[in-house]
Amino acid sequence: MSWAASAPPGIQQPAAAYYSQPSNAAYTAVPLRQGFSQAYQAQTQYSYTAPANPPPPATTVPTATASDQQSQKIEWPQSVRDYVQRTFQKSSDIVGISGAEVQAKLKDVIRYTQDCGIMHTTDWSQMPSPQQMIQAERQQALMASISSPAAPDHTATAKAKVNPKKRKSTDLNEPDQLGSTVPWRSTKDLSLEDRISKPATDMRSLMDGPLPAKSKSQKNAEKRQRRGDGGYQSSYRSPSPPPLKGPIVGLNEKLEKKFFRLTAAPKAQDVRPERILHQTLDMLKKKWRKEGNYNFICDQFKSLRQDLTVQHIRNEFTVSVYEIHARIALEKGDLGEYNQCQTQLRALYMAGIKGNSIEFKAYRILYFIHTANRTALNDAIADLTTAEKEEQPVKHALNVRSALALGNYHKFFQLYLDVPNMGAYLMDMFVKRERLAALANMCKAFKPDLKLRYITEELAFESDAESAQFIIDYDQDLLLEREDHIVFLTGKAGQRFEEARGEAFRRVDLKGQI
Amino acid sequence: MDSLIKEFNAAYAAMKGDQLAETIHPDIERYSHKLRAIWDRGDLRSTTADLNFLFYQDKSHANLSKAEATGWFEIYLTYWKAVGEILAAEGLRGNVKGSWTQVYVKWKELTLLIIRGYSHYEFENWTIPCLYVAGKYLRLYAMRADAEKSSSNDDTAMTGFQDDFDPEAEENKQLEDCARHLNRIFQICLTDRAPLEESRKWGVYYAINLLFKTYFKLNSEPLSKNVLKAISAGRSDIPLIDKFPKSQQVTFKYYEGVLSFLEENYVEAEKHLTMAWLMCHRDAQRNLELILTYLIPCHLLTTHTLPSAQLLEPFPRLQKLFIPLANAIKGADLRAFDHALRDGEDEFIKRRIYLTLERGRDIALRNLLRKVFVAGGFEESKDGAPPVRRTRIPIAEFTAAIKISSGEDIDADEVECLMANMIYKNLMKGYIAHERGFVVLSKNGAFPGTNV
């Protein structure tokens, strides 16, 4: 049967089975089991003693479930029992590690996997023994103290070891300082021994451990399995860990990362910490200048932004990331991304974080002119302070707006020729439409004709050739050559440009608009 | 509880919806006594027991069907809980501290139960006023809960993993939620298929008005469009709006007008707002003022007329808003207009009439150009024919006039551009002869609607 294949290695046995001793293991049984189960019972009744590695975010176990666990905890999977047995075999002993330490560690390990609900998915045969973990922990503490005596690693590790009860979930914000010897904490800190004892492929299942959220398929598999078990252990496995409440702290050291839209809680080892992100940004800026591959840059910026978001990093660095991405998106006319950045920037500025808020407020106004969104435009103006209205970029944007509102194309095109920052990219998006509007206007007011030169200047075309082309694109018979100049036959053109104008104003790209 | 249920029975027997709605009214000012009495009667158990008796065992009361009794039983039990939360939030329960968020949660439960009454327990349509009360207070409590949250400065906002969420939505979280439930009230009214006499369709406009209010508060007017679409799709079987209470008509027309206004559809806006204006109760000063706030700018653009002093007389706030602008337009004083617009900017922006009023400058300009035209005098008459105004006017004259009026320098090209606009907008008739530097105005009605 297919579901049987996905069942964990340790198949549930009746509660009584736990007490029936394997005949060949008599020498390990009595002291171990007592010590273990007693310690465990004591724990469930009182507040939970955290293991040396950080506990999952939710440390409070509702009392109801605690008693559930108590009544059911005797159903240890075979694999776990094998692991316990292995721990107490003579061959696992390492000189200098006392039995008490080993028991405590063992307890922590099992407890931890249970809390995370991964006890049944963990490959216990590959799990390093508690002795190995303790040894690795010590080695690492030693290494840390040698390489940088003043570094907090050492003290933190020591603290964690001396008084594990002091660790609270809020301490999560000092991630690198934890004695990361348990395999699911970190890969790079593993001692050679651990790496040998555990092939890299198996790491995955272990590394999934500390993160409470499970993938959908995993959950489904579990559900199926529970059904197969006749539902006996459904309460055993619950409570499924609640989603992360606090920010996570990344452990990923790579500069580049492909963007992937999260469907579950992020994993610390996939997320890059802020200091890495700083390097990432520098690298992206260089690459953008050198290669100009927008698809690559955009993807990288998205993952960069995501890493910032999941770690709740909101500071001036965050602002600069969004600003740079917004500018690049603007340059490439990617309004969707531009908008997302702009929305975030607005929130960040409102939170009082410094950046180029004037520049971006001006863009905001220009953008709403482009989308002809009057309500939003009104709100954007409402957001401005009197002082901001006097700042050059904002003032420019407001003048653009009022020039258009009053149909003053003369002023509008003068403003178009002199735009602060990158506002011209935004104005480019609606300049064609405004040219059509102006032409429709001129056709009605000026009779009988106009010099092409005049149109070129009024509507800010680069050259007569460009303005001629613009007109010819609509109708070929509107220009007439005189002795020394070309004229635009306004009398004939009215209808044509009126239509084009109406068409142009109907089509406003609203992509990604907020 | 006894007296409450007695009231319920009386209202139910008489089939008086309003009276029935009063029994679940949560207004602490109006019913402070009653609410306290209800809460102080006992704990959850005794209340449940009371209600159990009153609805299931006491056979003296009105002929409720079994389903209805179940529905009302749950409603009153939840009402009792909500009253407890309200008293706590108002600080009237001694040292029990409450919060408006809690009130909102309980009241939402009550609202959902009432909605459920219609979908599951065969409530009849005359009980709709209960739905009104529920919806009305749901909205109020949602706003209070949001205010409470933002003042407590609770920084739990960033819970999502994506960065494309809308930070503003967080501020109005409960109200957003509330809008969804109000929409359900709207739907449950709209989709009733019973014959019109006993249909919940009579609740449609009250629900719409609540929804509009909420959407406006949330700055999401576009959603109101969906509502309008929904009722125009089903218009054939919704009773005509003039069959509804006047208060509902006025509110609906007002919002419909403002929605058109915001879309720059001033003709439609004027139609709706005028209806609202005419029907509005003459003592509802606040509502009249609101209607005028939008109706006056509408008039300015559609008919180029300004409000009379008499019209504005009862509304000092509107006087302050509009009179400086109106005077500037009348006096063709561009500088005064710009000043008035700048002075009132914050208020205009807040009321969302700035972008509309700004266009009043065209009218001021039109008046100015007209003055130039009039000052130009008449051509020498030929052969004793009636005198004709001078219709060829050099651009330079207009330029001078605009310079004087606005107090700013302006070049001839820009003046031509402004003139072109006047012509394009039909505020002025004629054409510009660019090469020769003058404007040729129409002999008859150069400025339509102004007698010249």
Outline:
The complex is a heterodimer of chains A (514) and B (452). With 514 residues, chain A is an all-alpha fold.
* Largest interface, C-beta closer than 8 angstroms, per-chain residues: A-B, 44 and 39 residues
Low-confidence stretches of chain B: 154-162
Largest sheet of chain A: 3 strands, antiparallel
**Main structural class of chain B:** mainly alpha
From the spread of the alpha carbons, the general shape of chain A counts as elongated
Oligomer state equals heterodimer
User: How far from one another are the termini of chain B?
Assistant: 76 Å
Give the overall shape of chain B, derived from the CA principal axes: elongated
Helix percent band of chain B: 55-70%
Protein name (chain A): Uu.00g054420.m01.CDS01
GO cellular component, one term (chain A): nucleus
InterPro entries (chain A): SAC3/GANP/THP3, SAC3/GANP/THP3_conserved
Pfam family, one (chain A): SAC3_GANP
Write the layout of secondary structure elements.
The complex is a heterodimer of chains A (514) and B (452).
Chain A: H1 2-6, H2 26-45, H3 63-72, H4 78-87, H5 99-115, H6 130-147, H7 152-162, H8 192-197, H9 200-207, H10 216-228, H11 234-237, H12 274-290, H13 294-310, H14 316-331, H15 335-350, H16 357-371, H17 374-382, H18 386-390, H19 392-405, H20 409-416, H21 423-445, E1 450-451, H22 452-458, H23 464-472, E2 479-481, E3 486-488, H24 490-506
Antiparallel strand pairs in A: 1-3, 2-3
Helix pairs in contact in A: 5-6, 6-7, 12-13, 13-14, 14-15, 15-16, 16-17, 16-19, 16-21, 19-20, 21-24, 22-23
Chain B: H1 2-14, H2 17-22, H3 32-40, H4 44-57, H5 66-89, H6 100-120, H7 128-151, H8 167-171, H9 173-190, H10 204-217, H11 222-233, H12 246-262, H13 266-279, H14 285-302, H15 309-312, H16 316-330, H17 334-343, H18 345-351, H19 354-357, H20 360-375, E1 392-394, H21 395-406, H22 412-424, E2 430-433, E3 438-441
Antiparallel strand pairs in B: 1-3, 2-3
